[in-house]
Amino acid sequence: MKKKTIAIDMDGVLADFESQLIDHYNTAYGTSLTKESIQGLSEEEAFKERDLLFKVLNKDNFFRTLPVMQDAVESVRELQKNFEIFIVSAATEFPVSLAEKVAWLGEYFPFIKWENIVLCGSKRIINTDYMIDDHCKNLDYCIGKPIMFTAFHNVNQTHHLRVNNWKEAVAVLNETL
Question: Are 169 and 75 in contact, with CB atoms under 8 Å apart?
């Protein structure tokens, strides 16, 4: 029997993008943003200096040094027993991130085969049974069942099934078996 498929986003889902972005942005701009202070804000509201934000995101090693989300490695390994996992990242907006993301995955998720890594511009083409992502702009086009991973910018969004952490994600997906 063919396994069901899951597309899993990287930034904000597997990798703690929020913490890294706040640290780098604060250092570059002299601000004192915290995870708490940006809850419920859009990315544009939280990071007002857009030119600076793009400089931070295009900085060498920004994506390569992202921390791993708590329980992500163990949870993906667990899900892999019953699902085919694809790591899907809309990475082409920041070309420097492409090699860094592949290297990051090789370090933290070496059990994900290279052919199950999809670095793209738009996720509208992704056709999996489930998609775990923190952005509604990706989940709204999901062909399968969208699962929203909580992030500062989506806490006020309610139109997708929400999970707050990897333990919840595993529980929700295991219920579908």
Answer: yes
Structure tokens at 151: 């992030």
Kindly state the average pLDDT of the residues 81-89.
Answer: 98
Contact 166, 14 (CB under 8 A): no
Shared domain for 11 and 87, answered yes or no, is yes
**What is the pTM for the complete model shown?**
0.96
Distance, in Å, from the CA atom of 177 to the CA atom of 63, rounded to the nearest integer, reads: 34
pLDDT digits (tens, 9 = 90+) for 37-69: 999 999 999 999 889 889 999 999 999 999 999
Specify whether 31 is located in the same domain as 80: no
Domain extent for 105: 4-16+66-174
Cα(142)–Cα(145) distance, rounded to whole angstroms?
7
Q: How many angstroms separate the CA atoms of 164 and 19, rounded?
A: 16
Same domain, 11 and 37: no
Could you list the active site residues? 9, 11
**Is residue 77 located within the same domain as residue 151?**
yes
